[in-house]
Amino acid sequence: MDVTLQWKRVFTPTADDISDVMTVCRSTPAYWRLTEGRLPDQAEVCGWFGLDNLPQGFTLADAFNFIIYCEQEVIGFCQILRGWRYPEQSTIGLLLVVESWQGRGVGRQIYQQIEALVRDWPGMEWIRAGVIATNLPAFPFWYRMGFVDTGERRQELQFLAETVILEKRL
Questions:
Q1: What is the pLDDT of residue 108?
Q2: Contact, 95 vs 110, CB < 8 A?
Q3: Nearest CA among 42, 39, 153, 166 for reference residue 93
Q4: What are the tens digits of pLDDT across the range 25-64?
Q5: How much is the pLDDT for 100?
Q6: In whole angstroms, what is the distance from residue 39 CA to residue 26 CA?
Q7: Euclidean distance between the first and the last CA atom of the chain, given in angstroms as a whole number
Q8: Mean predicted lDDT score pLDDT of the chain
Q9: Is-contact 24 69, C-beta < 8 A?
Q10: Which of 102, 121, 114 lies closest to 146, judged by CA?
């Protein structure tokens, strides 16, 4: 079921933006339980938008934080970093769809719009996504979107398990 989505790119979040992202976080408890064992707090969510959250050498112009709405309802949030880890690839750092909207094709629709955005950036050849190994329900989605496991793994302190790196050639 395709729906009309509205995307709001956020550089410097307002109180309403933070509230909307917190709504997405509270509406995806299964994800947080599987990946971190707890919901992020408001201070953490605010940190997602700052320069401190970016790798060295990247600016806010390289970070694409989107709050996603259907009509007036907030239904998702995603983060994309242009040119990470190599200039010809970009990485989806986070893609959340509120649980009441999952299983309706909205995640696919959001991903297709992300891919179209990344394809429009000059020189992009690859798109990557990291999936926390304990988030087993996410893997079939990413595989359906055409991603493959690179064999690369990363361990980050806040997660309950390693991050499995997936990628797709554009």
A1: 97
A2: yes
A3: 166
A4: 999 999 999 999 999 999 999 989 887 788 888 988 999 9
A5: 96
A6: 7
A7: 24
A8: 94
A9: no
A10: 114
Instruction: Report the pLDDT value the prediction gives residue 156, as an integer from 0 to 100.
Output: 86
| Length of the chain in terms of residues written | 170
CB 117 within 8 A of CB 9: no
Q: How many CB atoms neighbour CB 126 within 10 A?
A: 16
Contact 163, 149 (CB under 8 A): no
Q: How far apart are CA 50 and CA 35, in angstroms?
A: 22
Per DSSP (E only), the strands in 4-105 are 5-9, 63-70, 73-81, 89-97
| pLDDT range class, residue 111, cuts 50, 70, 90 | very high
pLDDT at site 130: 95
Token pair for residue 76? 């998702």
Do 24 and 66 contact (CB within 8 A), yes or no? Answer: no
Contact call for residues 154 and 85 (beta carbons, < 8 A): no
> How many Å separate Cα 45 from the centre of its chain?
13
Q: What is the DSSP letter of 83?
A: T
What pLDDT does 54 receive?
85
Q: Which one, of 38, 35, 115, 107, lies nearest residue 76 by Cα?
A: 107
Backbone angles phi, psi at 124, to 5 degrees: -75, 130
